[in-house]
Amino acid sequence: MFLNTRSLFVWCLAALLEAEAASVSSKPKPIVLSESAPSNAGIPLDSFVSYSFELSSWPDFAGNLSYPNKFSYNLLNNIGNLQGSLPIARVGGNTQDIAIFDASQKTGLLGIVRPNISSDYPTIITIGPSFFESYKTMPKGTKYSHGFNLGANSSAARTATFASAAYACKAIGSDLAYWEYGNEPDLFVSSGYRPHNYTEAEYVEEWLNGTTAISSAVKAACPSLANTKFMAPSFAGVGPANDFFTLDPVLAWKNGLDQNDNIGLISSHNYMGVSTSPGITLQGTLMNHTNVVAKAGDQLREWAAIKALGNGLDPDVPFILGEHNSLARQGRPGLSNSFGAALWGVDWNVYLASQNISRSHMHQGTNYRYQSWQPIQTNLTTIGTKPPYYGNLAVAAMMSKPHPSSLLKITHLPASSANNSFYTAHVDNTLTRLLIVDLHTYNTTANNYTTSFPRP
Predict the structure, then answer these.
(1) Confidence tier at 245 by pLDDT (50, 70, 90)
(2) Which InterPro entries does the record associate with it (predicted)?
(3) CATH number (domain holding residue 129)
(4) Which of helix, strand or coil describes residue 439?
(5) What is the spatial distance between Cα 87 and Cα 78, in angstroms, rounded to a whole number?
């Protein structure tokens, strides 16, 4: 809910609180809305609402020069028009560390799906030079991050990866925002890419050697892009290490991950749970502000631990979620593709912004259950927008700035509770918007409400 008249702000807030109070037999508590932003307000980066695209799905979402995907083009434009800056497209994910570059391959991407490993994406992939055409199809001004393969551990695969850098930089050109080398390397042991004794020091050595080789290849092919920085380390876990997330991100920084001063963003990944885990529910897992605050708190503690390293080990750059969505393993039907998940996305993303997590890349893939839109028609999923996209639009509207130089600040109000959250947006230190998110679940085809609130 977005209102621009201050008297309506207060009226709406009071009405909601009175309704909630009636259900718990108590009086509403007044909330003070400050004319100016508080000192702890979050200051998101431009393009706060951004996306992460599974590398194997990128040609579906973007198309190519012969057949650009106009549907994706329009949907990204919608977000850009609302928030005042186009989403940044991060291309990577699990298949980033599977894809092998073949300079002689005529087809952009060839993939083989092995259902015993995953039915959601190919697990044998080669990409050719024409793969990079997809970076030329989105709205003018769209910026990109391209992910290179760190998972493949042979000298031939590494040589091919470094050779692909020249093709990538020539295709993306001045629209390049960042590089990325490796996706969730703290899962490399679990994925079988590295031995069980793989350490943070070994990861850092590999990352430094690889990023140096990539930067050298880019300097030779695209001199103007030679100083492009990386987002890193793109871990799935927040530490400490365990049997599943076998690397600790803080120890990676402590081992000198940024000793070459080539990291532009601290990138972390997050999911609210795993789709196949027991006990996952819409109300308890997603439409639950308490859970949102707790999961974001894990990320914030990781960031604080990195900043506490000092001595040049902390890169002193923005902290972002380079990949996230509702439930890992591509989401669960009936939960991740519901309008309840759209409301979770609103609450989650705006809360991130209020805590100075500076940008949000929501992960997308063809046929994925948590996708914001299906880019093409398949035998599994109909092309079209999905409920999460409408949540993305709401977040983009909350992040709107009238001018690129305007200063946006997002505040999480202390009145928020498990099933309601409240936020304000100040633009140039003027109260501009109030966002109220009602996280009580209900089924529009049933009358088994848990509260007596009036329904739209």
Answers:
(1) very high
(2) GH, GH79_Enzymes
(3) 3.20.20.80
(4) coil
(5) 10
Cα-trace Rg, the chain: 22
SS3 content of the chain, % helix, strand, coil (to 5): 35, 20, 45
pTM over 0.85, yes/no:
yes
pLDDT band at 451 (very low <50, low <70, confident <90, very high): low
Which member of 20, 184, 206, 323 is catalytic?
A: 323
Burial degree of 193 (CB within 10 A; 0-12, 13-18, 19+): middle
* Alpha-carbon distance values, 154 to 56, 84, 151, 416 (Å): 21, 44, 9, 51
Distance CA 276, CA 279 (A): 9
Quick check: is 202 catalytic?
Answer: no
Name the CA dihedral angle for 231, 64, 372, 239, rounded to a multiple of 10 degrees.
-20
Q: Examine the residue annotation and report whether 323 is marked as an active-site residue of this protein.
A: yes
What are the angstrom distances between the C-alpha of 431 and each of 14, 41, 183, 263? 17, 12, 39, 34
The domain total for the chain is 1
Q: Spot the catalytic one: 20, 54, 180, 200.
A: 200
In a domain, 442, yes or no: no
DSSP character for 417? Answer: B
Look up the domain containing 371 and give its range: 44-401
Q: Which two tokens stand for residue 342?
A: 């759209």
Q: How far apart are CA 347 and CA 253, in angstroms?
A: 30
